[in-house]
Amino acid sequence: LNLVIILQESLGSEFVGSLGGIDLTPVLDGLADEGIWFEQLYATGTRSVRGIEAIISGFPPTNKRSTVKLAETQRDFFTIASLLQKHDYQTSFIYGGSAHFDNMRRFFLNNGFQTVIDQKDYENPDFVATWGVSDEDLFLKAHEYFSSKGDQPFFSLVFTSSNHKPFEIPEGKVPVRTGPDAPREMAVSYADYALGRFLELARTSNYYDNTVFLVVSDHNSRVKGANLIPVERFHIPGVILGKSIEPRRVTGISSQIDLLPTLLSLIGVDSEHPAIGYDLTRPEYLNGANRAQMQFHDVQGWLEPGKIVVLQRSLPMQTYLYEPGGQLRSDPNPDEELKQRALAHALWPTMAIKNKEYRP
To answer: What element of type H or E holds 84?
Structure first.
């Protein structure tokens, strides 16, 4: 099957009604019962390149720069595009702004993406903002490109940008809001509106029946808080859709790094690869991976149900009790095996980069 990943810019769970947020995403909320809906999905970091790294490569976070920008990973670094290219897929990245931003063009073209479409490739877009063309223009271009593929299997990463400061969107598309956060809230609503327009087109297209779609955020919008690591600000929406997808809810903790192996199963690609995420179609992981790893400045977090291990540079590891939405509380009975799992997963990705082991 074809695979389309729609990466939504800065869409935190606080804007998604189905995840307990304010009701700004009726289209996305409406998909909760149509596909595989993640109730406790966590981003690995706080920047777009960190989300790209996790979703496209299945790579855990490090205290280094993201692999999208890291010198050591600009060639022969594993991505889902490099894998699918070996299975005769056409691979592409479609963006409304300049793909040179954050080194995306170089990283993608050197690591399995055959085609990059960005702002210079749009003729007479309806709306152009600071970050590029509108999400509607982006999705129309993507739809036209997918429609041209015929029987050729394809994979594409489509990266939105309308929900990015300074939140410039076309007038008259969504209701006007007031208050100090009105521009952001209207941008979230517009991004959701544009997603809905795309899905309307896709559902009547020649490619819909043969395609699996992932809609997921790159990171939350406001990653700050009083905790050493503000876990609730890593909570993001995610849903997998398609004619072949049986709807269900994944209620337990999962990470962005689990999406890659799960998608490979859902599109029917059998392969060997270095990604360490869990395939959430397997019986033992149907309710989630029960762990998530996240990077917040120089702090690493390893989250498991009810507990989180916090790793800080040059300080002893600390274990805290944690429930969604709550504060970190000191753990009176630290689990040494839990600490060792956290430490191993914090060390391994840096070692994999150094030893050039994360290869296609």
So the answer is: helix 80-86
